[in-house]
Amino acid sequence: MLYSSRPLFYPDIFQEAGLPLWLRPFEVLVTSSYTALIETIPDTASIHSIKSRYPNITSLRDFFNAKYKENSPSFKLAQRNFVESMAGYSLVCYLLQIKDRHNGNLLLDEEGHIIHIDFGFMLSNSPGGVNFESAPFKLTRELLEVMDSDAEGVPSEFFDYFKGFLTCRKHAERIILLVEMLQVRIQLSIGASEQIFYMSQTACPVCMILGFNLIEV
């Protein structure tokens, strides 16, 4: 069976609204109940590997400056690609509580897009069964620097792209319908015991954020 990792119609929702938010779907070929083949994403490198490969580069902004030549047309295009993808993935991570967003799970492609991989921890599932990640999505000082902003909140025209959240709310029924499908029999490992997770308003922020109620099965 062939599935796409396209997360809950988000790319289609953004496209219908005319928003330039960018996500990179990839295909998954299911081979059994426990195994699958995941499409390789070519021409990418993780932020972790980029920093390891170029020890003289101390930040992601330095990498963009060196690769695309700061203030050049190619730099401006790569910067915009970065922000459009950053905004799209931030919304997805916020609504679905995608966790474990370390630099090994964040890729950069040749055009400057950021691409998230490894969605093993989402909703109420956390590494080690301990929910220690309080941030709704990853937005560090280093990522802000690429977008011409900083931790003090220096204004940037690029932040307008985060208005895509309002578009998601308009399509709440489409999103929550698919989220409800996940509640039927999602097995989560908490410590040494296996539990069946039933989504509720308390456990899943999707319904609270989008203003809907989920019915427990």
Automatic annotation (TrEMBL):
Q: Outline the extent of the PI3K/PI4K catalytic domain.
A: 1-217
Provide a GO CC annotation, any one.
cytoplasm
Q: Answer yes or no on keyword Magnesium.
A: no
Gene Ontology MF annotations: 1-phosphatidylinositol 4-kinase activity
Q: Which InterPro entries match?
A: Kinase-like_dom_sf (IPR011009), PI3/4_kinase (IPR015433), PI3/4_kinase_cat_dom (IPR000403), PI3/4_kinase_cat_sf (IPR036940), PI3/4_kinase_CS (IPR018936)
Keywords for this entry?
A: Kinase, Transferase
Q: Spell out the Pfam families in the cross-references.
A: PI3_PI4_kinase
What's the superkingdom here? Eukaryota
Q: Name one GO biological process term.
A: phosphatidylinositol-mediated signaling
Residues of the signal peptide: none
The answer, when asked if Cytoplasm is one of the entry's keywords, is no
Name this polypeptide is given: PI3K/PI4K catalytic domain-containing protein
Originating species: Carnegiea gigantea
